[in-house]
Amino acid sequence: MIKKIIVIGASGTIGKEVANRLEEVGHEVIRVSRNSGDYQADISDKQSLANLFKNIGSFDSIGITAGEVAAAPFENLTDENYSFSLGSKLMGQINVVRTALPYINVGGSFTLVSGVLTDEPILGGTIGTVINGGIEGFVKAASNELPKSVRINCISPTVLTESEDYHPFFPGFIPVEAWKVARAYERAISGVITGRIIKV
Question: NCBIfam families from the entry (predicted)?
Fold first, then answer.
């Protein structure tokens, strides 16, 4: 069945792969990024999200590949670092779900993104671990309460093969290709699971 799917963060490495894969298997894909795509929106700005969904209207699924976190040694982290990260990757994704609920079709789905730092902390990654853990907790809890038989899941990728600049911060980690992460999004969007954290 062809679905109308919104990919938020579609200009990024994972987002491009997710959007392309979903189109390959026949879905209608709406690409959303901050500064490009079919529509523009900033997930850290709730009004921006409200405008986005008002303009798009009804849809079947959302795959989120967006959200930023600050990285620095623990002693150097500031209130601003925490506030920025909470507002972007954590509350940004939560607010996508909250704002989009009136527009999502019955039986639709949300797929959020966390990351390997939930389970495997690294030096300088305290905020990332905190934020990712919050996202995964939200998904597990919200899956029990979403209306209209809507499903929600989370993709937790490790460091990407394509993101070579980040490899030194993940010593001993085995990188994963972005196309494999995209397949995890496809499984979450097109399958029947809910409340799951899919690790890639």
Answer: PRK07578.1
Provide the token pair at 87.
Answer: 């507002």
Name the residue with tokens 């679905």: 3
For residue 159, the one-letter residue type is V
Q: 4-199, what's its fold?
A: Rossmann fold (3.40.50)
CB burial class (10 A; 0-12, 13-18, 19+) of residue 65? buried
Residue 1 has pLDDT above 90, yes or no: no
SS3 category, 131 = helix
Residues 171-188, mean pLDDT to the nearest whole number: 98
Rounded Cα distance, 155 and 53, in Å: 23
In 3-state terms the chain splits into helix, strand, coil percentages (rounded to 5) of 45, 20, 35
Q: Is pLDDT of 30 > 90?
A: yes
